[in-house]
Specification:
The chain has about 450 residues and is α/β, with parallel strands linked by helices. It has 3 domains: about 5-130, Response regulator (Rossmann fold); about 135-310, P-loop containing nucleotide triphosphate hydrolases (Rossmann fold), CATH 3.40.50; about 310-445, Helicase, Ruva Protein, domain 3. About 50% of the residues lie in helices and about 15% in strands. The strands form 5 sheets. It has a 5-stranded parallel β-sheet with strand order 2-1-3-4-5, with helices on both faces. Strands 7-10-13-6-14 form a 5-stranded parallel β-sheet. Strands 8-9 form a two-stranded antiparallel sheet. Strand 3, helix 3 and strand 4 form a beta-alpha-beta unit. The longest helix has about 30 residues, at about 105-135.
Length: about 450
């Protein structure tokens, strides 16, 4: 049952409104005291508030301002016995849902209340969905580079400016695109992703703009294009550098005119789409060598963001590793409380050419194989080099002795790096004595200075 508060110094009017709304199965509370009404609003969660404009003590406009600050998502319908366009405009500007005159038809009042509550319910569902999406696509980073990215996202998200995102593979370019969308005014609208590198050249126009049935051989049914699907929302063009020049020309035309034409259609459609593009290529270099249109390049780069690689975000590595540990521990129903210091040192020593995506894959493997409360160094080492060893096994043509010696050499080198060159510490980490370590270092011609 929806809950409504009616605030008016006219108790007769309150009785009428209360009876009307209760008859429609609303739960209604009333107050003829503005100060007491604020206390009620602070303590309770109402689905709608009816508020008189003229009241002694605190007038309705001042009370509206307090309500908006206290409970910004609760719709407030202003009701006045003295019609004034200036007051109505002021109330709407402050944040009132609607402005009605006393004596308004019953049906009009009921429809307004119903619509106000429906809007509140939709907003609550939207915020719940956005919270879930933001948790799912959580971005983590305390490093200076990522804090700068977060600040830029917050600044540009409310605009409709086109954004061009640069970054190495695995840095999280799509996460940034999603963050921009879900923090924008288009958050409740479609977010459509297109991987430009995965589209066959012959289908680019159909994928982007759609086609009608029978428009070409194999067009057995109507297809809605990505631009139409993203209408009023955001279209994320991943790997934009992979589009050929013909596709670039067609894309440029849409960005200039905001119009699309389906293959085989006779009518042109207008679309309202925010474009976010991403690439791991040097687009300026592509323009210079003639493989990317200069006019399209300038259209796309209204705002440019560059995501730093993980190796430049050392401060973020433990945070990300722990985040992935918790996520995958929950996914695989395992109780893993953290990493051993040696395991974290090994993680920190990596250069991470695959960036955050590679770190995520590593932690998932480690969680799967860990049987203890903490992830140890051996598990991380196994997860790091299992793929490399698999590749080596598939290509190995030498003896077993050569294969084992190569892996032993790599293991000793890694531990020496972790121990910062201190032989005693490295030996303890590998659970061998110092003399054995020196012997093996001489064998493999490692620096034993």
């Amino acid at each position: 049952m929806y809950s409504i508060l009616a605030v008016d110094d006219d108790t007769h009017f309150l009785d009428i409104v209360s009876g009307l709304l209760q008859h429609r199965k609303y739960r209604v509370e009333t107050s003829n005291n503005p100060t007491a009404a604020i206390e009620l609003i602070d303590r309770n969660n109402y689905d709608c508030i009816l508020l008189d404009v003229k009241m002694p003590g605190i007038d309705g406009i001042s009370l509206l301002d307090q309500i908006i600050r206290l409970k910004p998502h609760v719709p407030v319908i202003m009701i006045s016995g003295q019609s004034s366009l200036a007051i109505a405009v002021k109330a709407i500007k402050i944040g009132a849902y609607d402005f009605l005159e006393k004596g308004v038809e019953t049906d009009r009042l009921l429809v307004t209340v119903q619509n106000a509550i429906a809007k509140k319910s939709w907003q609550e569902e939207k915020h719940t969905l956005l919270d879930e999406l933001q948790k799912q696509f959580q971005m983590i980073g305390e490093s200076e580079g990522m804090q700068s990215i977060f600040h830029q996202i917050k600044t540009i998200a409310p605009t409709d400016a086109k954004v061009l995102i640069y970054g190495e593979t695995g840095t999280g370019k799509e996460l940034v695109a999603r963050a921009i969308h879900f923090n924008s005014n288009r958050a409740g609208k479609p977010y459509i992703k297109v991987n430009c590198a995965a589209i066959p050249e012959t289908l680019i126009e159909s994928i982007f703009f759609g086609h009608v049935k029978g428009s070409f051989s194999g067009a057995y049914m109507h297809q809605t294009g990505k631009f139409e699907l993203a209408h009023n929302g955001t279209l994320f063009l991943d790997e934009i550098a992979e589009l050929n020049l013909q596709a670039q020309a067609k894309l440029l035309r849409v960005l200039q005119d905001g119009e699309i034409e389906k293959i085989g259609a006779t009518q042109i459609q207008t679309v309202d789409v925010r474009i976010i593009a991403a690439t791991n290529q040097n687009l300026a270099g592509r323009v210079a060598n003639g493989t990317f249109r200069e006019d399209l390049f300038h259209r796309l780069r209204v705002i440019e963001l560059e995501i730093p690689p993980l190796r430049a975000r050392q401060l973020d590595i433990p945070l990300l590793a722990d985040f992935f540990r918790m996520r995958f521990s929950e996914k695989y129903n395992k109780r893993i409380t953290g990493f051993s210091p040696q395991a974290m040192n090994l993680i920190m020593s990596e250069k991470w050419p695959g960036n955050v995506r590679a770190l995520e894959n590593l932690i998932e493997k480690a969680v799967i194989f860990t049987k203890a409360l903490t992830i140890d160094q051996e598990t991380i080492f196994t997860a790091l080099y299992s793929d490399a060893r698999d590749d080596q096994l598939r290509s190995q043509t030498g003896s077993l002795k050569e294969f084992l010696e190569q892996n032993e050499k790599e293991f000793i080198e890694k531990n020496l790096v972790l121990a910062k060159g201190k032989k005693q510490i490295a030996a303890e980490m590998m659970e061998i004595d110092r003399a054995t370590l020196w012997k093996k270092m001489r064998k493999y011609k490692l620096d034993n200075s």
